[in-house]
Amino acid sequence: MVPGLAVRALTVDDASAVAVLVERIEAADALPTRTTPSAVAEELAYSWNDLAVDSLGVFDGATLRACALVDRLPGSDVRAVRIVLHGGVDPELRRQGVGGLLLDWQLARARQRLAASDSTAVGRIMAGTNDGEGSAGHRALLARAGMSPARYFTIMRRDLTDPIPTVEPRGDVRIVPYADRYDEATRVAHNDAFRDHWGSEEQTAEAWAQGRDGFAPEWSFLAVAGDGEDERVVGYELASRSEEEWPVVGYTFGYTELLGVVRDFRGRRIAPALLARAMERFRADGMEYAALDVDSASPSGADDLYASLGYRRRHSDVVYTIEV
């Protein structure tokens, strides 16, 4: 480690310092997105991690210069036990071995957490990065540690000045605004819809309630079938609002975080109907673009659907993995 730096575990009280560091890193790397301070605070507070043993901060006096977190994603652990490595190094401290030391520690801690699991599923250690020039050093560091690209996620946007098609779902399905009373039914629908998606595990109620930073219920819609006791959520579009990013990217946008249709209701134009309704609401609220991301190898062919609705590629993120 560089002389003069101190290392200790992070605490939830370090959220502001971590947010400042993340902002410096994202700006230096010219990343096309930004992480909000509230998202950082939420992540540090996740109940399934123990910051005392699952995090490290590198400090220069009172200033945080690098950080690392080993995040054990909750879920059913049927297909894989998933661990995500988060962190970064202050641009002024790079190429001094700090990043490599933190990554070595993360991989060792990730293996410890996997060894403690009762699941017989494969252990999958993951780290996300961007495919742009600014993240080349990060990608090289991950590759030297034995991780390799496993998945590319394409971030797409759609100009809302273009005409928005009118799309209605087929059959006895109605599109309704999101409401809290449907939340558990939406979780159940999500677990069904994403059963065949890479990296996805069944979401527990606790996990489903997390990661809601920026959630915009006024931009979110559900596809509902049946009535009374037979009423069921069969599709969903859950959106977020990230005003902190608008000045950085240079335009306003609404973001579709999750889009899914249960398996036995696919092929009824539910997904395009949900997206069209969301785009209408984005535009009514003054947004210039609709945005979302998609697994480039999605088994549902979602990228073709988005392209047909006018979404165009903006950039890609890459997930590096190593399986244990």
UniProtKB/TrEMBL annotation:
One function term, GO molecular function aspect: acyltransferase activity, transferring groups other than amino-acyl groups
Pfam family, one: Acetyltransf_1
Keyword Acetylation: no
Keywords: Acyltransferase, Transferase
TM region(s), chain numbering: none
Gene3D superfamilies: 3.40.630.30
InterPro entries, per the entry: Acyl_CoA_acyltransferase, GNAT_dom, YpeA/RimI_acetyltransf
The UniProt record lists the keyword Acyltransferase: yes
Location of the N-acetyltransferase domain: 5-165, 173-324
Protein name: Acetyltransferase (GNAT) family protein
Source species: Paraoerskovia marina
